[in-house]
């Protein structure tokens, strides 16, 4: 497979080019947008454009969460945003947490393509709860990254994910091992939060070669050092590839007219902080 077809090869090139594993979360909460953008045709797009201009030199990828775009204007804003990020050469990981029965999953997977139904993205997050077949339409996309929810960063992440499903085996550990088996095409990663660093380390020990997307630093107070120590794959073809995400901590670092400058500074600070532990 050539580098252009392989998401993790493209991501590695990007990480090396900007010397950064920072994933900038594009979550333009309408309630928090600066007032002066309110008159814009698409305020979320106006916001994201300025955030991208200010942060792209520090961004290994952008991670828009679809929750912030699921309305008519939102989809338009998302399409504009993705095209703009692509124009800057920054990969986009769509945080959609999808997974469903076959025909529905196939439709969900069209999110990855730019066209009539999808905005187009380089990678996506998926939910493994419905099993392997529910993820097949994503896994079969050799040119796209597929990040499987494993141990999420929210307080309730332990409710199910930490249940013992076998001798000395918690559900998130089982998911990590199954996802590793699903990585037949070299396009699977895991979502593992920074808020439980010992569990993050445990998952890294279990699956050394899978890249992680590590959310939860910044606003959720997760452990940034653990995120960058255990997030990147530690062996295999994707060695060194991983992402540490911050959304609100970057895009809402400042307010008012100069919100973008504050975002750029926040992205740079996080990059430097993480690089101190790489
Ligand atoms: O376990 C998870 C999975 C996804 N997320 C998403 O990441 C960002 C985090 O936002 P912050 O503002 O940096 O807290 C957001 O889109 C979440 O839905 C996560 O936090 N944890």
TrEMBL record:
One of its GO terms (molecular function) is orotidine-5'-phosphate decarboxylase activity. Pathway: Pyrimidine metabolism; UMP biosynthesis via de novo pathway; UMP from orotate: step 2/2. Its EC number is 4.1.1.23. The keyword DNA damage does not apply. SMART domains: OMPdecase. GO terms for biological process: 'de novo' UMP biosynthetic process. It comes from the Archaea. InterPro entries: Aldolase_TIM, OMPdecase_AS, OMPdecase_type-2, OMPdeCOase_dom, RibuloseP-bd_barrel. Belongs to the OMP decarboxylase family. Type 2 subfamily. Residues 21-263 form the Orotidine 5'-phosphate decarboxylase domain. Keywords: Decarboxylase, Lyase, Pyrimidine biosynthesis. It catalyses: orotidine 5'-phosphate + H(+) = UMP + CO2. The active site is at 97 (proton donor). This is Orotidine 5'-phosphate decarboxylase.
């Amino acid at each position: 497979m050539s580098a252009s077809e392989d998401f993790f090869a493209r991501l590695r090139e990007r990480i090396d080019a900007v010397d950064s594993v920072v994933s900038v979360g594009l979550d333009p909460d309408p309630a928090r947008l600066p007032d002066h953008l309110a008159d814009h045709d698409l305020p979320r797009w106006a916001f994201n454009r300025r955030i991208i201009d200010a942060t792209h030199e520090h961004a290994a990828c952008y991670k828009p969460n679809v929750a912030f775009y699921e309305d008519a204007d939102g989809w338009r804003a998302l399409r504009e945003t993705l095209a703009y990020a692509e124009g800057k050469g920054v990969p986009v990981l769509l945080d959609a947490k999808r997974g469903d029965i076959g025909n529905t999953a196939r439709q969900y997977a069209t999110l990855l393509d730019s066209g009539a139904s999808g905005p187009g993205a380089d990678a996506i997050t998926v939910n493994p709860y419905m099993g392997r077949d529910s993820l097949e339409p994503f896994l079969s996309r050799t040119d796209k990254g597929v990040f499987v929810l494993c141990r999420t960063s929210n307080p309730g992440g332990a409710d199910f994910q930490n249940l013992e499903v076998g001798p000395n085996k918690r559900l998130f550990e089982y998911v990590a091992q199954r996802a590793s088996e699903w990585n037949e095409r070299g396009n699977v990663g895991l979502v593992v939060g920074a808020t439980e660093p010992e569990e993050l380390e445990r998952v890294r020990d279990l699956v050394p070669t899978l890249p992680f997307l590590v959310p939860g630093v910044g606003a959720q107070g997760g452990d940034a050092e653990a995120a960058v120590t255990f997030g990147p794959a530690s062996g295999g073809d994707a060695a060194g590839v991983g992402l540490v995400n911050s959304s609100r901590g970057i895009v809402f670092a400042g307010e008012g007219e100069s919100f973008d400058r504050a975002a750029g500074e926040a992205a740079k600070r996080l990059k430097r902080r993480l690089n101190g532990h790489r």
